[in-house]
C-alpha cells in the first residue's frame, strides 16, 4: 500500500510509515474476516470503501496504540484493576462495526463414504 492509497481513504489522520503498515493490516483483516470485497491496491476501489470500513480502520489504529497488560488504580480502601486484551477488543470492534458483514467461523466439511 502506498501513502497515496492510504490518503485516499480520508481517515483524518497523519500517515507515517508505521501508520501505513497498520492501515494495510486493518484492511487485510476486513478482507479475510468479512464479506466486504475490494482491491486494497486499487485507488478507485479504495475511494469507494464503505464508511464502516474506514471507521474500523481508525479504531484499529487506536487499538494498536494501546499498551497490553493489567493496570490498577487505588483510592483509599477501593482498588480496581483493568485488563488490556487487544485480541478480545479486536473481536468486539469487528462485531460492533462490521457485524453484519462478518463471515462465520463455522466450516463445513463434506463427508466421505466410509463403506465404499
Structure description:
The chain has 116 residues and is α+β, with helices and mostly antiparallel strands. The protein is 47% helix and 12% strand. It contains 5 helices and 2 strands. Strands 1-2 form a two-stranded antiparallel ribbon. Strand 1 and strand 2 form a beta hairpin. The longest helix is centred in the first third of the chain and has 17 residues. The radius of gyration is 19 Å and the shape is flat. It starts with a helix and ends in an 18-residue tail after the last helix. The mean pLDDT is 89.
Kindly list the characteristics that best describe this protein.
116 residues, alpha+beta, two-stranded antiparallel ribbon, 2 strands
Mean pLDDT, all residues: 89
Looking at the structure, what is the overall shape? Answer: flat
Report the uncertain regions. Answer: none
Please trace the helix and strand order, writing H or E for each element: HHHHEEH
- Supply the helix-strand structural class: alpha+beta
- Beta fraction: 5-15%
Amino acid at each position: 500500500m502506498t501513502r497515496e492509497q492510504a490518503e485516499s481513504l480520508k481517515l483524518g489522520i497523519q500517515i507515517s510509515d508505521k501508520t501505513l503498515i497498520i492501515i494495510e493490516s486493518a484492511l487485510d483483516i476486513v478482507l479475510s474476516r468479512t464479506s466486504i470485497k475490494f482491491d486494497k491496491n486499487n485507488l478507485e476501489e479504495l475511494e469507494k470503501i464503505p464508511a464502516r470500513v474506514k471507521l474500523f480502520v481508525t479504531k484499529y489504529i487506536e487499538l494498536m496504540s494501546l499498551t497490553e497488560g493489567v493496570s490498577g488504580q487505588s483510592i483509599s480502601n477501593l482498588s480496581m484493576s483493568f485488563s488490556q486484551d487487544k485480541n478480545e477488543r479486536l473481536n468486539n470492534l469487528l462485531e460492533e462495526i462490521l457485524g453484519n458483514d462478518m463471515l462465520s467461523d463455522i466450516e463445513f466439511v463434506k463427508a466421505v463414504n466410509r463403506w465404499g
